[in-house]
Amino acid sequence: MKKEFKVLQQETMYQGFFSLNRYQVQHTLFAGGQSEILSRELFQRGSCVAVLLYDPDADKLVIIEQFRMGPVGQPDKHDQAWLLEIVAGAIEEGETAEEVAYRESQEEAGCVVKEMHLINEFYTSPGGTSERIALFYGRIDATEVGGIHGLDHENEDILVSTVSFDEAYKMIEDGRIESAIPIIAIQWLALNKHKLHD
Known about the structure:
By secondary structure, the chain is an alpha+beta fold.
């Protein structure tokens, strides 16, 4: 079977900080033939990076905390709109994912990365957004990490701290980390941190 799809129509429904497009699409079916014409909205987010900043010698990783819009839509989460995450940012035109990983590590956490390694690339929510993440591991020295970081012209207000791996994993288990990307990154670290020592 040859898998194919056709975009029959595309229109921009909204253009702002992000954009929302509506598509009319049709695709091949596993049983043969073509699907009905589907009308689907796609949140255009583009390509991004995330960086797990970790010091294998101290067994500490960087956790950032910042205000996020996602919980604002949840009536019972208004006091929980500040999420615990890892460094992340959008890839701008002309930049590579690795360049952005180094830049965001400095801008959002004040970290100088000694080594950068790609962990994996994945879609965050392919049912409705184009966002694709390149997840990196960045080796750091955690001894001088902390404080408030971010770019003023991007209205960033980011609290940076380091926690032990055990504490970070406990944050997942007890629900303090609710964002998917740091959960994926910390679970990767649980499986691979024994390989990261010199």
